[in-house]
């Protein structure tokens, strides 16, 4: 299954060096390296640092690299600059999970003064990742939306708790249907959250039948105790059968959220 690994941290913490070593240990992974693409075409990254917009050919080359890495079930490694509160990566992870793509955060931290000194002492090949943060986000978001357009994706059911939005999906690829579910917090990720998530993974497991995935969906999140937000018409009858079986086993109505009683 495809995976996006985000190597996250402020400028000067060593993200590029880490990715270079990571690539050496994982030679089959693909790295979204915008400065390298720019340098290969123009000989240096001077114009990119000065804020010139990426030309269409390079934009498409970077997008194609990301697109085909994910489509071919490979690992895509992305350098991502984060310093302070950051919701951009939360949006990217949420969208990736919605498409059934595994994600991992590798958070690199360093004393701010030491990171600053590293930047000051860096050689001519050093490129500040904050200069292309928006470009990186734009390429990834457009890539993920392109994948969504090429994927038959149906949101079957969505529920909510005070802290989470939880959804169950069906996807169809090359005539094969599979099911998966995801959850997302109702607030953006902050830097301190990213630090605590160092090494964390968000695996997305796929199932071959609705009954199997819903059983796990209910087991993990007690779905019938959550507020029902959406239920696809095609799956109402199947879901009602599962709910009725669940309901008769309960001692009282308190074991289910009222929103499920109108099925």
Word description of this protein:
By secondary structure, the protein is an alpha/beta fold. It folds into two domains: 3-149, P-loop containing nucleotide triphosphate hydrolases (Rossmann fold), CATH 3.40.50.300; 152-187 and 205-260, no CATH class. The chain contains ten helices and nine strands. The strands form two sheets. Strands 2-3-1-4-8 form a five-stranded mixed β-sheet, sandwiched between helices. A four-stranded antiparallel β-sheet has the order 7-6-5-9, with helices on both faces.
Quick structural summary:
This protein is 41% helix and 22% strand.
Furnish the topology, listing elements before pairings.
Elements lengths: L2 E7 L5 H11 L4 E3 L1 H9 L3 H4 L6 H16 L3 E7 L6 H11 L3 E6 L4 H10 L11 H17 L2 E9 L3 E10 L2 E10 L5 H6 L4 E2 L7 H12 L5 E5 L4 H13 L15
Parallel strand pairs: 1-3, 1-4, 2-3
Antiparallel strand pairs: 4-8, 5-6, 5-9, 6-7
Helix pairs in contact: 4-7, 5-7
Q: Approximately what portion of the residues adopt beta-strand conformation? A: 15-25%
Strand line-up across the major sheet: 2-3-1-4-8
Number of discrete domains:
2
**What is the rounded Rg?**
22 Å
The third-level CATH topology of the largest domain is Rossmann fold
Helix content: 40-55%
The major pleated sheet works out as:
5 strands, mixed
Question: Terminal Cα separation, in Å?
Answer: 35 Å
Unreliable segments of 5+ consecutive residues: 188-192
């Amino acid at each position: 299954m495809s995976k996006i690994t985000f190597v996250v941290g402020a400028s000067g913490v060593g993200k590029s060096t880490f990715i270079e070593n990571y690539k050496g240990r994982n030679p089959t992974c693909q790295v979204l390296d915008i400065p390298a693409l720019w340098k290969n075409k123009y000989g240096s990254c001077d114009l990119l640092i000065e804020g010139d917009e990426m030309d269409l050919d390079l934009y498409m080359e970077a997008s194609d690299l990301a697109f085909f890495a994910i489509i071919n079930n490979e690992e895509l490694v992305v350098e991502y600059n984060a310093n302070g509160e950051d919701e951009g990566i939360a949006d990217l992870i949420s969208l990736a999970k919605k498409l059934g793509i595994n994600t991992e955060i590798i958070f690199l931290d360093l004393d701010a003064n030491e990171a600053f000194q590293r930047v000051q002492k860096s050689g001519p090949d050093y490129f500040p990742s904050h200069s292309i943060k928006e470009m990186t986000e734009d390429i990834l978001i457009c890539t993920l939306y392109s994948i969504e357009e090429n994927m038959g994706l149906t949101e079957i059911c969505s529920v909510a708790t005070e802290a989470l939005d939880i959804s169950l999906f069906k996807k169809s690829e090359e005539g094969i249907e599979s099911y998966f579910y995801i959850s997302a917090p109702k607030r953006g990720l902050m830097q301190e959250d990213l630090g605590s998530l160092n090494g964390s993974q968000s695996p997305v497991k796929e199932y071959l039948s609705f009954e199997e995935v819903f059983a796990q969906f209910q087991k993990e999140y007690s779905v019938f105790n959550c507020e029902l937000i959406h239920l696809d018409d095609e799956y109402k009858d199947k879901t009602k059968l599962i709910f009725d079986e669940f309901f008769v086993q309960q001692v009282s109505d308190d074991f289910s959220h009222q929103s499920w009683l109108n099925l």
